[in-house]
Amino acid sequence: WNGETEEERARKFQEMGKSSETLSYLDRAIRWDPLNPEYHRSRGKLIFYLYKSNSKQEYLDYAIMDLEQSVELDPYKAAYHSDLGHYYIEKYYMSNKEFLDKAMVQFKCAVENDPVNYPQFYTSLAQIYLLKGNKDEAEKTLIKGANIMKDLKDVNRLWSFRKDTFKEQIMAVNSSLADLYLTLKNFDPARKYYSRVLEIAPDNSDALY
Q: In the chain, where does DSSP find H-type helix?
């Protein structure tokens, strides 16, 4: 109960844009309940935000430690793996090449744990394959993600709080697949997946092109 109270206080300070106070109350929440993976994730995401604001590498390391703790406490939560994968990618771009494989493991876990609700997991995993120069696996991954929903008009049947997020993600994975086919000069499948984007976003400039 005390952990929940401190976490609620942290949320209120975060809404006010007060990062220091938010971090302080998240620290307290974790002290009360160190086995709550969501508290670690919240603190990790805040520290990652601070890292993006001032580029202090130690902030990224702290964010990674928190998300690694979240994954350890709840290895079946896909979102934790996805967050950690993105943080590992940041390390990779800082010339820590070994983190590319670590990111791949996390995105694979995200897809395995929730293969339906978050098309962005497939997009992220495919990007790893492309960084490795493996276009075949990138294509296979994007095809799976793009076809989570066969008829994209069904996106309008989703609950409102899910529709916008899912719509954005399913558009992105279809667009990424079309872009890949375009670079490979496979124009028919490129047109197919751009057309799928246009089904739910008729004014999408990239797909129209």
A: 2-15, 19-32, 37-54, 57-73, 78-93, 99-113, 120-131, 135-146, 160-183, 187-200, 205-208
Strand, helix or coil for residue 78: helix
62 with 38: CB under 8 angstroms?
no
Nearest in space to 81 (alpha carbons), one of 62, 58, 64: 64
pLDDT by residue (tens digit) across 2-14? 899 999 999 999 9
Neighbour-count burial of 187, counting CB atoms closer than 10 A to its CB (0-12 exposed, 13-18 middle, 19+ buried): exposed
Distance CA 30, CA 3 (A): 7
Per residue in 62-121, pLDDT (tens digit) is 999 999 999 999 999 999 999 999 999 999 999 899 999 999 999 999 999 999 999 999
Sign of CA dihedral 112, 115, 118, 119: positive
DSSP assignment string, 41-76: HHHHHHHHHHHHHH--HHHHHHHHHHHHHHHHH-TT
Do 22 and 54 contact (CB within 8 A), yes or no?
Answer: no
pTM, entire model: 0.92
Q: Residue 107 has which token pair?
A: 């995105």
Structural contact between residues 121 and 110, judged by C-beta atoms closer than 8 angstroms:
yes
